[in-house]
Every structure is written in structure tokens, then in C-alpha cells.
Design goal:
Blueprint: H1 9-12, E1 17-22, H2 27-39, E2 44-48, H3 56-62, H4 66-70, E3 73-75, H5 78-81, E4 85-91, E5 102-104, H6 105-116, E6 120-125, H7 134-137, E7 142-145, H8 157-172, H9 193-210, H10 221-232, H11 236-252, H12 258-265
Parallel strand pairs: 1-2, 1-6, 2-3, 4-6, 4-7, 5-7
Amino acid sequence: MNRPAGSHPSSTGLDRIRIVLSQTSHPGNIGGAARAMKTMGLSRLLLVNPKRFPDHEAVARAAGADDVLARAEVCTSLDDALANTVFACAVSARQRNLGPPSLAARLAAEEILARAAVGEVALLFGNETAGLTNAEVQRCQRTVFIPANPDYTSLNLASAVQLLAYELRLAAFGHQPPVLARTVPFTSPPARHQDVEGFYQHLERVMISSGFLDPQHPRRLLPKLRRLFGRAELEQDEINILRGLLDAVERAGPTPSTNTTATYNSGLKK
């Protein structure tokens, strides 16, 4: 991946953020969470009493994030998973009277990254069916919610991890994370004025010789074509292709079609 100077995860705080999954019942969700984490540059996964782990389904759903699974720590209590952290956030859609202050995911990401600058930080996700218990939430300093449709806030566990990991990545890179360019840049320079004008002259000649354009009654055909190709901002390679096409038409000889010409010209206003 192309990274600007100083953009390694260790300098963004992402390596000091741990994702903690508590009481996960489906191993596929553990794999899906690992995949979500790796795509956003997170690597520290802790599991509190997972029902099934390790498991082949977790590996299958990780889809290449096997290294995150291999390094995952299995803990017997939430206190163990939160050990040595200086800040923890509970991800929950439910409002709780006695819970810690609540923040939307995007705002929470900014605070999480700020806290990660001085120590270890945890993001806690609950069981797929019951979510987090009040006791688990009260071990955290913030509650984080995803501002979903209020009529249906239920999210798959791995999807929730993906959304929070995405927000953390945006925050870590000032909302401009580096991207990997998979396409080969096109290097053809812009066409020069004289080459574009030469193309228009060639195009006009072919249209006249083919019978498509009546030079005695050109109407607005040429200005419309100039506007069309002007919007395209032709490059030199494109001019060469178009001139080659016109050469081929000229070599093939005139093949006028009165009906076609009349049809096109009838739509051109004076």
C-alpha cells in the first residue's frame, strides 16, 4: 500500500486499539470481525469466552485475515481483556440510564484516537443476541452507538466492527487515508490545438465524401461535433485513433446513404 511519510499504523495510534468481542456465539462472526479489522489497519483482537474458537468457520469468514485470528487472545474475563487499557468504549445501540456518556461512532473515533496517543484503548462488542450487559458497559468510559435507522438498529456483529474500524481509520488519517492505486495511469498528453483542428478538417472531409454532410447546407452539424469532442478534452492518443479511423473510412471509398444523411440532418436546426 502506498503510504505517506509517517503513516504507518504505529504513528496513527491504530496499533494501540484493541477490538474486544465478548461472549461471541458464532465463530463466523469472529472471522468476519477479523476481516473487517484488517481491511482498516487494525490487528489486535481479544475474545472473552467465545463459544467456539478456534474454528474452521472463523478461518473461512476471515478471508485472508488469518494472521489477525492467529494472534487473537482468548480471555476468561472482561477484566483480563481490558487489562492495561487507559480508555474503553462499549458499542451498544441501547441507551442506559446508568451507563457512561454516549457518543456517535464518528465523534467517538476522534476521542478514541486521542486517547490512543497516551495508552492502550479498547472497543468492546457484545454477544450477537443479547449485546452487552450493564455490568460490561459500566466497565467502560464511553458508550458508542452507530446512528442507524431508529426503526431498525440491529447490525450484524462483524458489520458493526467494520463500521467502527472504518471511522477509526478515517480519524487516524485526518479523513484522508492513503489508497492503493490499482490502475496504471494513462500517460497520453493532451492533444495540441493544431492536431485537434487537423482532426476536424479530416472529419469534415470524410463526412462530405461519404455523403453524410452536404457542404451547401451544413446547418449546425460541425459546431455540434466541435462541442461534443470539446467536452471530451481529447488526448493525443485519442486524436491518433480517430484520425486512423477516418483514414480507414477514406480507403474504403464513399458509401453515401441518402436516407441516413437525411435522418441525421433533419434533427439539426438552422
